[in-house]
Amino acid sequence: MLRGIHPLLTPDLLFILASMGHGDRIIIADANFPAVRIARRLVPLAGVDASQALEAILSVLPIDDFESDPVVVMQVVGDPDALPDVVRDFITILAANGLQPPARIERQAFYRAAGDAFAIISTGERRFYGNIILTKGVVPPSGAGG
């Protein structure tokens, strides 16, 4: 155990997050997401839901503030304006971290984006549409503004 590190952040996940560069994307995926097929790098968190994973990751990961849509979720197929409960949870967690609500993209576009992601975290999330893309930002030097 380490002090100040969220207990859900496993050594493998911490290595992935630290290895990402500015603009790299990571996916938090639900249990139905085809993560094994799509992932370049896969981090399993089977006993964790997507909301828990998001809270843990945001405790260490800066989100890009240069990009217009640094956080993205998947639209509901056939009802792109729907807001599933899991996405409502994401919005609450993002707001608690000073972040805007996520953009929403069509399912196949989300899968394409996932194929280009640095890594996918495969959670045990059972709620449908429990998938979110996070774009890594930067950590400024000590004493720098921003």
Topology:
Blueprint: H1 11-19, E1 25-29, H2 35-38, E2 42-45, H3 50-58, E3 71-74, H4 85-96, E4 103-105, H5 107-115, E5 119-123, E6 132-135
Parallel strand pairs: 1-5, 2-5, 3-4
Antiparallel strand pairs: 1-6, 3-6
Helix pairs in contact: 3-4
Shape: globular
Q: Can you tell me the CATH class?
A: Alpha Beta
Give Rg in angstroms: 14 Å
Determine the fraction of residues in helical runs and give it as a percent range.
25-40%
Would you give an account of this structure?
The protein has 146 residues and is of the alpha/beta class. The chain has one domain: RbsD-like domain (RbsD-like fold, 3-Layer(aba) Sandwich), CATH 3.40.1650. 29% of the residues lie in helices and 17% in strands. It is built from 5 helices and 6 strands; from the N terminus they run αβαβαβαβαββ. It has helices spanning 11-19, 35-38, 50-58, 85-96, 107-115; strands spanning 25-29, 42-45, 71-74, 103-105, 119-123, 132-135. Strands 2-5-1-6-3-4 form a 6-stranded mixed β-sheet. α3 (50-58) packs parallel to α4 (85-96). The longest helix has 12 residues, at 85-96. It is globular, with a radius of gyration of 14 Å. The relative contact order is 0.31. The mean pLDDT is 96.
Characteristics:
146 residues, alpha/beta, RbsD-like fold, six-stranded mixed β-sheet, 5 helices, 17% strand, globular
How would you summarize what this structure contains?
The protein is α/β, with parallel strands linked by helices and 146 residues long. It has helices at 11-19, 35-38, 50-58, 85-96, 107-115, and strands at residues 25-29, 42-45, 71-74, 103-105, 119-123, 132-135.
